[in-house]
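Below is how a single chain appears once it has passed through the pipeline. First comes the sequence as given, then the structure the pipeline wrote out for it. We keep one example in the README because the format questions we get most often are answered faster by looking than by reading.
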Amino acid sequence: MKQPWRDNNQVQLLINGEEFFPAVFAAIRAAREEVLIETFILFEDQVGRELQAALIEAAGRGVRVEVLVDGYGTADLSTHFLRELVEAGVRLQAFDPQPKIMGMRTNLFRRLHRKIVVIDGETGFVGGINYSADHLLTFGPMAKQDYAVQVRGPIVADLHQATLTLLDETSRVRRHPRPWRTRGLPIEADSAQAAMLLCIRDNQAHRDDIESQYMQAIGSAQERLIVANAYFFPGYRVLRALRDAARRGVRVTLILQGMPDMPLVRLCSRLLYNYLLREGVVIREYCDRPLHGKVAVIDRQWSTVGSSNLDPLSLSLNLEANLFIRDQAFNQRLHDHLEALAQQSCKSITLQRVLRGYWWRAPLIFLSFHLLRHFPAIVGMFPAHSPKLAPLGPVIKEPVESASGNAP
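Resulting structure:
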């Protein structure tokens, strides 16, 4: 069953780790009853250790703390790091952990890519930021540009339900989310009256929920549309919708990676440039640092912030979570930030530049595009197990000498 839109929510935009991590850690330290966390990556660096300390302190106060990490994205935490969490009472689980073969991770697809935090059923966080130091500017030139939101209001009950549903997959007892409660301090919000919709993507009942919301919003756009996306390689439907929006006079701007953390990503995106530029779509490549964001604004009300890229992995294989927001104040805040990013930190991509040498690249572009677009279907042809959650406690309760050290 799809979730309905929820009215009267508070929302605050959090840009990069400098804003996200202090807000999350403060919320954990103020928790009274429960801390729930889902993340793709948790590294054992300065950010991971600060998160560990906050979780241990909360568990020591009697707060129920549960953390779910992805078995591929979080594959190298030390036994000592995990032992300290479990001995403090933190419940740790991994999504689809698989052993390495010849030192290589094999669980490449159908990843838990969601990033959700729920505190006491009152405060939530959603976005694309992992728990790693490469989301901090102090990391250096490869620090990621990324986004999240902190929310309070009825939408938190939907976040709570989504996280409990996933966390309880290995349990015979289903916990029920508590109704959102108004006690607790309000957040420093960009808006206090936002309507919100939580969309998740899974490989069962919600295969195209996020893509459908994008399609509806792009199809109804009348004035302006900005998409800032780290890994941009959408399907035919989204490409045609962007083309049609530009044709009817919408100012369509794409902010994509110009300094990618994975060069193949930019190559794939550039396969689409000729098609989009010919239709009047404006393309800017962000060149200050790797872009890791997954955000968009359309017209004066609609915005989205979440974990889902517009690429085959996010739209067809991974577990993802995006918040869709209808609010003029928040839309304007995010729009102004993205517009400044496009003007000050991006290079403009012209059709003349893209067409250089296009005659010999055209066949390669055609073949590559269709191969990548059908990649999820190709993956689906191979036998695949059903991803499961695995508690991490038994792994780290063994003596250190016999522990694998490869905990997910």
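The CA atoms of residues 218 and 242 lie 7 Å apart.

See the next section for the split statistics.
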